[in-house]
Each structure stands twice: as structure tokens, then as C-alpha cells.
Design brief:
It is built from 15 helices and 14 strands. With about 400 residues, the protein is of the alpha/beta class. The chain is globular and about 65 Å long.
């Protein structure tokens, strides 16, 4: 390890058993920075963001060279009640007190994390806050603003219009964005000004030769298929994707299967042509991606999409929700995928990618080159190190 000054990372959940884009980025970055300097992570004891239930033990643990400080959430969340409360705020008259109560209910409610960060803030060359949306970021930025870098992972969602987030985006000394569309969205909503900002992205590493045949045998996959990988949730566009796929099956004889992998956050689909394979290891996930005709990214709300970039790295094209500026931008700039906004476009795109091997191969190779040019870890780390040095000065 070098003699560089320590850095802190504040993120709502952390660990190998934690899924989520911002959480995965925070962990990957922490472990790589820890090869160069001391890294301390401030996080909750939660594994899931639905309830914020304390499942990890409170206290300090060392993971892959990173000091991880976990603080118990002092309140669990009732998601149904929280969503009902949110509906009373979004686009309707409300008070600042309403928004602070919303933030507390949003969670994870970890005031002791904020206090510990306040006590230790002078130890760190920089404090990186991941995701604009949560309690630890809002209050942590107030506790340690002097050398704060915000990695907001922003997408256009109702919460972004709340007044408290004017304060969040006003506080940091610098920003690290994941994509150009994310930066454009933030600059259109908030006064970023001339504070240091960089499109840092995230490093993507794909295995050289995933065992596609073993995956097919293990799961009895005999024909062409498209893959959805990630949280299976109506809010992630999955309900619409399944409805579009059902219409596709009706109009296209011999349609490719739709395989789903990841954690269920809705009822397991029971429709023809759709199979849920459960939560797979990273190795199996990559094999599933490499053998797919396309990887479907259904969410209209994305700030990066690790899944799409992993698919590109494996030379698998994307079929993405065109209402997401980020997903559409990846496909257009890389020339590595198709996007849809209607059932007819979904069906046409799926059929093209499943039937036209030449097109699929050309798009896949474009995707591989795009990831190699834009999302190598050495380049990403250099961008973060430059920001850290800027704010620590």
C-alpha cells in the first residue's frame, strides 16, 4: 500500500451478499483503492433496501483489505406505508418537515453512522458518497462536506424533484458521474457550476471463456434464448417486459425463450416461454449472458447498467428500454444493441437478434470494443484518483 492519505466511502449497504448497482460500484472501487491507500467504508447492517433490517453484525470488519464500519438501522421500513407517504409528496404541496420525515423513512436511519463520520472526517483525504437518494448521503454530506465527492447515480425519478436534494447537490466539492446522460440530467436540474466533475464510469471485467455449454446442460436450455439478469421487479420494467414478451410469443412462432435470473421482488412469472432460473453465481451469470441472443434491460431508470456493460464485454448485444436515456446512449454510441418503447418494437428487436446471426455477431463485437475503450478499471481508477487529489488539496 502506498503512503497516500486514507479515503472514506459512505454507502447505504455493503458486502458480497449485497446486490445493486451503486453498492456493487462502491465495493469494487473500495477494494481497488485499498491496494493503493487505506479505505474505510461507513455503511448500515442491512442486506436489503426494502426493510433495512439489520442482518450483518454491527461494528468493524475487514473485507478484502477494506475497513468496513457497520451501524445498525434504528428503524425498519414498511415499504407499502413508505410508498403511500411518498405519493402524498410527489408533485403535491408539502413542507420541508415532510421531506425530512420522508428521508428518515426512506432510510437507512443510521444517525450513529453520521456522528462517527463527523468525528473522523479530518482523517480522510476525501469522502465519497454513493447515491444521492438516502439518509446517510444527505446527513453525511452535512457532517463532512469539506472534501466530499458525490457519486450520485442519478436517474430521472419522482424523488429527484424534492427540495432536500437541492441541498445534496449543493454540498459536495466534486462529482463523479457514471455516464454523459447522467451528468446532463444533473446539470439540467441543479447548480453544479464549475466544481470539479468527471464522467468516471465503472470498470467492467468479463471472464475470458465462460462455459456456455455447461450452463445449457445444467438448466436444460436447448434453443435460442434472451436473458434478463437483475432484480425481477415491476418497478424495474419487468411487468411491461413480460407483457411485451407474451404478445411476441403470440405473433412469432418458435420464439426464443426468455430466461430470468436474479432475486424475485414480484410474483414468479408463470407464462409460456418464460423461465425463472433463480439467483446464479457470477460464473453462471456470465455463461448465461455469453450464450444469449441478447440481454434485455427493461428498466426506464438507469444511471449506468452494469448488466448491459457486462453483456457487451461478453460480445452479447442488448435489447433495452428506449425510455432510459442512459441505456439508449450506450446502444447508440457503441452500436451494440437495439432499443424499444412499444410492444411492437420489443418484438421486432427480439426477433432480429434471435434470428439474424450476422447482425448479432456484429453488434456483439462492437459492444466488446466499446467496453474495452471506455470502461477499463485502470482508466476509471485514474479518474477517481484525480478527483481525490483535487478535493484533498
Amino acid at each position: 500500500m502506498s503512503n497516500s492519505r486514507p479515503v472514506a466511502i459512505v454507502v447505504q449497504r455493503y458486502g458480497e451478499d449485497v446486490t445493486g448497482g451503486s453498492e456493487s460500484l462502491a465495493r469494487a472501487l473500495a477494494e481497488r483503492l485499498a491496494l493503493r491507500r487505506a479505505v474505510t467504508v461507513f455503511t448500515s447492517c442491512a442486506r436489503d433496501y426494502v426493510t433495512w433490517r439489520n442482518e450483518h453484525p454491527e461494528g468493524s470488519v475487514r473485507l478484502e483489505g477494506v475497513e468496513v464500519l457497520r451501524f445498525a438501522s434504528e428503524e425498519e421500513r414498511d415499504l407499502e406505508a413508505f410508498n403511500a407517504f411518498s405519493d402524498r409528496l410527489y408533485g403535491k404541496p408539502h413542507t420541508a418537515e415532510d421531506e425530512h420525515l420522508w428521508l428518515r423513512r426512506q432510510g437507512p436511519f443510521v444517525p450513529r453512522l453520521v456522528e462517527r463520520l463527523r468525528q473522523r472526517r479530518d482523517e480522510f483525504a476525501a469522502v465519497l458518497f454513493f447515491t444521492y437518494l438516502y439518509f446517510p448521503t444527505y446527513w453525511g454530506l452535512r457532517a463532512a462536506p469539506e472534501r466530499a465527492i458525490l457519486v450520485p447515480t442519478t436517474h430521472d425519478e419522482p424523488a429527484l424533484s424534492l427540495g432536500i436534494f437541492e441541498e445534496v447537490f449543493a454540498a459536495p466539492k466534486a462529482f463523479a458521474f457514471l455516464t454523459r446522460p447522467e451528468e446532463a440530467l444533473v446539470r439540467s436540474r441543479f447548480a453544479v457550476g464549475d466544481r470539479p466533475a468527471v464522467v468516471a464510469g465503472m470498470g467492467i471485467e468479463a471472464p475470458a471463456s465462460p462455459d456456455v455449454e455447461a450452463f445449457r446442460i445444467r438448466h436444460d436450455v436447448r434453443g435460442p434464448y434472451v436473458l434478463y439478469a437483475g432484480r425481477i421487479d415491476a418497478g424495474k420494467g419487468c411487468a411491461e417486459m413480460l407483457a411485451f414478451y407474451e404478445q411476441h410469443r403470440c405473433r412469432c412462432r418458435g420464439a426464443a425463450e426468455l430466461l430470468l435470473i436474479g432475486r424475485l421482488a414480484m410474483s414468479e412469472p408463470r407464462q409460456p416461454g418464460v423461465r425463472y432460473l433463480g439467483y446464479l453465481s457470477e460464473g453462471e451469470k456470465h455463461a448465461a449472458m455469453a450464450g444469449a441472443s441478447a440481454v434485455v434491460c427493461a428498466s426506464p431508470y438507469e444511471s449506468l447498467s452494469i448488466v448491459l456493460l457486462e453483456a457487451f464485454a461478453l460480445a452479447t448485444p442488448g435489447l433495452v428500454n428506449g425510455r432510459s436515456p442512459v441505456l439508449r446512449d450506450h446502444c447508440v454510441r457503441a452500436n451494440a444493441g437495439l432499443y424499444y418503447t412499444t410492444a411492437a418494437e420489443f418484438s421486432e428487436g427480439l426477433e432480429l437478434l434471435a434470428r439474424e446471426e450476422g447482425l448479432r455477431r456484429a453488434l456483439g463485437e462492437n459492444g466488446r470494443r466499446y467496453v474495452d475503450a471506455e470502461y477499463r478499471w485502470d482508466a476509471v481508477l485514474a479518474r477517481y484518483e484525480k478527483l481525490i487529489e483535487t478535493v484533498s488539496g
